[in-house]
Amino acid sequence: MSRITATGDDRLAARLARFADAPDGAFVWTSDPDGLLWLGRLEGEWYYDARPGAAEVDLIHVRPCRWLVAPVAEHRVPAGVRATFARGGKNWQRIRSAAVFEASTRLWEDGSEQER
Predict the structure, then answer these.
(1) Beta bridge partners of 27
(2) How far apart are CA 27 and CA 15, in angstroms?
(3) What is residue 59's three-state secondary structure?
């Protein structure tokens, strides 16, 4: 992470630190190219992926995740998650809503019987 700090981009360094410091087991949401939303959980430490393919898709800062086997049906995605993606954010963002955490927990537990 010193490479980021050395660039002087304090906002990027702070965002990366939040990403690296998030606890294992934290819920994460992502969207795929079709706009479908996926629920996962962090499962390992941050690392820098220096492979050329990672840079090509702008995924050089990585945390292992475990994902549900299918995207979450749109009507089941918590409103706070939909609102966050609707704002167009493309980076690591924390959603502080207790309702989102509770809904994500239920969705995870519902999907836990499926193979991941």
Answers:
(1) 41
(2) 17
(3) coil
Query: Helix (H, G, I), strand (E, B), or coil: what is residue 37?
Result: strand
39-49 confidence digits (pLDDT tens)? 999 999 999 99
For residue 29, what are the domain limits? 23-111
Domain-embedded: residue 35: yes
Residue 18 lies in a domain: no
Asked whether 76 and 109 are in contact (CB, 8 A), the reply is no
- Token digits for 116? 């991941």
The closest of 35, 18, 11 to 92, measured between CA atoms, is 18
Query: What is the number of domains present in the chain?
Result: 1
Residue 1 forms part of a structural domain: no
Give a yes or no: residue 5 inside a domain.
Answer: no
112 pLDDT higher than 80? no
**CA 75/CA 27 separation, integer angstroms:** 19
